[in-house]
Amino acid sequence: MPTRNVNLTDDQDAFVEKMVKAGKYQNASEAVRDAVRGLQQRWKED
User: Fold this and answer.
1) By three-state DSSP, how is residue 41 classified?
2) What pLDDT score does 31 carry?
3) Cα angle vertex 6, ends 18, 4, to 5°?
4) Does the residue 3 lie in any domain?
5) Alpha-carbon distances, residue 12 vs 1, 7, 8, 39, 45 (angstroms)
6) CA-to-CA distance for 29 and 35, rounded, in angstroms?
7) Distance (Å, rounded) from C-alpha 31 to C-alpha 6?
8) For residue 46, what pLDDT is reported?
9) φ, ψ (nearest 5 deg) of residue 40
10) How many domains does the chain have?
11) Which domain holds residue 40?
């Protein structure tokens, strides 16, 4: 799997951490992949 570094705002980083700590995702990478899947769906529909 390719690796990519991304810069998040403090608020975005805190949100990702909150989702991981709440058990919604196992780690930050999983959360970001889910966000990208959402973008893929949004742009497919337009």
Assistant:
1) helix
2) 98
3) 115
4) no
5) 23, 9, 6, 16, 25
6) 10
7) 13
8) 58
9) -60, -45
10) 1
11) 10-45
Dihedral of alpha carbons 10, 11, 16, 22, sign: positive
Identity of the residue numbered 11: D
State the pLDDT at residue 45. 67
41 domain residue, yes or no: yes
DSSP state of 23: T
For CA atoms 11, 35, 6, 44, give the dihedral sign.
Answer: negative
Looking up tokens 């497919």, which residue turns up?
Answer: 44
pLDDT in tens, 1-46: 899 999 999 999 999 999 999 999 999 999 999 999 999 999 996 5
Rounded CA gap, 20 and 27, in Å? 6
